[in-house]
Amino acid sequence: MSQEEPILLRQDADGVAHLTLNRPRARNALSRPMIAALQKELDAIAAAPDIRVVVLAGNGPAFCAGHDLKEMQGADYGRAYAEELFAACATLMERIVHLPQPVIARVHGIATAAGAQLVASADLAIAAADARFATPGVNIGLFCSTPMVALSRNVSHKHAMEMLLTGDLIDAPTAERFGLINRAVPAEELDATVAALAAKIAAKSRLTLAVGKEAFYRQAELPLEQAYAYAKGVMVDNLQAKDAREGINAFIEKRVPVWCHA
Ligand SMILES: C/C=C/C(=O)SCCNC(=O)CCNC(=O)[C@H](O)C(C)(C)COP(=O)(O)OP(=O)(O)OC[C@H]1O[C@@H](n2cnc3c(N)ncnc32)[C@H](O)[C@@H]1OP(=O)(O)O
């Protein structure tokens, strides 16, 4: 794949796919072609039986500086352009949440606005200790309404409001405290930490990961009683799967499971 492509894809032998935003000179600003390319790769990954985990990263000095403000200006801030842009962005974020494979955001540098939204939409996020995050739309008169959807589902009400209303950059330890990321690690440990996390998850059954990820998001939207009823159904179905039987048998027989959906 050419280095000029907006999205780079690399797949490791252990089932880990690496998706890299690749507009470093524009700090990986999410242009329409960039969003379309990312959507296309994720759609293909969703159907790929040999991919079990996805790592999302940015090339160059930043993870992602949000939507492409020059593209917006070039489109004269038109309503039709905006409708298409924000619909595509929402579809992209939903694609990440509904992807059968877990997604890990590997964050370095800056993650702002739609870049912070990507981090919040990922299932897991590991950041370099010097990474910084913000929803700075409020500073340019464009409130981060779509990033708000993912942000408010990840960090507390007051932390989300603080980020959205001030637009201030927060550092990685603060992002960890807010719950926007799992961990902040020294920059030189970022790749090893992400690789270890990805490998640990990639060793599980692909089916079990997909069942669990879908169940997590669906139950979170339900009232308690319905959530338990739904989760009960998921467990009943899950127990019928060959991988559940194999995992339980392997435990009892004190051996490593051999997944059917490896
Ligand atoms: C609902 C959601 C809304 C949104 O997503 S709105 C977007 C909100 N995003 C922002 O407000 C962030 C804007 N960018 C910045 O504040 C800074 O950049 C950074 C802190 C991310 C990085 O700073 P540094 O490393 O010093 O780079 P640099 O010189 O500012 O930028 C390098 C080149 O990248 C272009 N660029 C940066 N961000 C964007 C962007 N979001 N859209 C379009 N271009 C961008 C610049 O203009 C410049 O370009 P040139 O070299 O031609 O001067």
From TrEMBL:
Keywords: Fatty acid metabolism, Lipid metabolism, Lyase. GO terms for biological process: fatty acid metabolic process. CDD domains: crotonase-like. It holds the Pfam family ECH_1. Its EC number is 4.2.1.17. InterPro entries: Enoyl-CoA_hydra/iso (IPR001753), Mitochondrial_ECH-domain (IPR052377). GO terms for molecular function: enoyl-CoA hydratase activity. It comes from the Bacteria. This is Enoyl-CoA hydratase. It comes from Azospira inquinata.
